Structure formats: C-alpha cells, structure tokens
Amino acid sequence: MNLETTPPLAETLGVLETAALLRELTAGLLVLDDFDEALTALVRITRDALAGVSWCGFTALRAGEPAGVAASDTRLSGLDDLRYGPDTPAMDAIRRREMVGAEDLDTERRWPDWTTRARELGVHGVISAPVDVDEQVIGAVNLYAGESDALTTGHQLTAMLLAEHAGLLLAAVRDRQRRAAQAGEQDAALLGDGVIGQAVGVIMTQRGCPAEDALEVLRSAAASLSIPLREVAERLVSTVSRPRDN
Q: Which parts of the sequence belong to the ANTAR domain (predicted)?
C-alpha cells in the first residue's frame, strides 16, 4: 500500500459508519439473484455511504467470460475494465491478493496509462481491495477520491472489511442465480413433458394465469396431497377429459 499514515482521530472512518455500510449492503444484496445487478447495487451503496469517496467501481473476472465491471458513475466505468491493459490498481490487487492504492495520483508512477486517464477524469486517489467470490469469480472493489489525500487509513480498513463482506454477499447472489437458472431449466423440462404440460394448460385456461404460475399450482397440489407431481397431473387431465353424463 502506498498510502501514508494519517492521524487516526481526525481521519479514521468511524466504526458506526462502516457498520452502517455493511448493514445496508446486506439488505440491498440479499434480495437480488442477478450478479450484475448486485455489483451495480454494491458500488452505488458504497459510494453513497462513505465520506471522502467520490466514486466506487468493481472489476470482476469470471472464468470463461469477459471481465465485468460496475461503476457508480458510468463516466468512469472504463477505469474498472481492462481497457488500459493489465497495469491498473484493480488488476494489481487481484494479482497480488492484497490491497493497493495511492493517495495522490499526481505523483504516482505506477499504472501510467491508467493514471493519466484517471487524472483526466478528475480522480486523484484510489484504493483497490481484492474480493474473492467463489471458485469461478474474483475481483476488486475500487474506491476513488476526487481530491488528493482524501483517502485515509480509515478508508483502507473500511475497504478491507468491505471486500470481505462483499465477497460473501456476492457468493450468495451467485448461488441464488445458479439455483434460479436450474429451476428454470427444470420448469422448462416439466412443461415439455406430455401429461404435465397438458395439466398446466388446463390450469392456465381455468385461472387465466401464465405457465409458471400454473406449474406452481400443480406443485402445491402435489405437496398438499403428498403424491408425485406426475400423478397429480394425470388425475387432473383424466378428470377434465372424462365424458360428462347427460
């Protein structure tokens, strides 16, 4: 880390402020099951919650996919991707698995291409902290200051806690996203099944609801009766297909 120590009482972010940030992140991300939406929420909440932080970004590296980015200000989104090559604070943090940063980019000699562009955009200080999400995703959360010497040792501590907490929350989002995708695939397979698809069609006609809701009605009936889903479907189809007595 290339940030100088500053007077703790005057500069260190309060414990309550950091705790409030982590609580807000938890509340904001627990309701999401889309990873990109979660990154967008993370950078917005962080930017709004931390005094001295003008912008926040996130760089995500996903196995087999292009690098993903999120930025609290789209004007600065290029600073978080690989547009300037591998020599950026975020990539340094990811490679070294440790926090990196600079309190004054006007005197910074690392990441020359990136630093030049950052200064042009009004960025004068940066902290990047590595974030471990799961076996397929790693990344870095990036705190940017619009003034030199605005990022303190307090921001460093907050960035460390933020990175750890964000990794856990984002891992949970990824897990929910995977389970939702698997459920969608299972639903598609069930809807393509002959008798179950017919039963879903019956319910859709009776209730005027979409296929997903009709399938859930069928599942609820199977759970209530403690019998297999296919058997419930067969009974329903058999009932509506049975000729009525005159």
A: 176-237
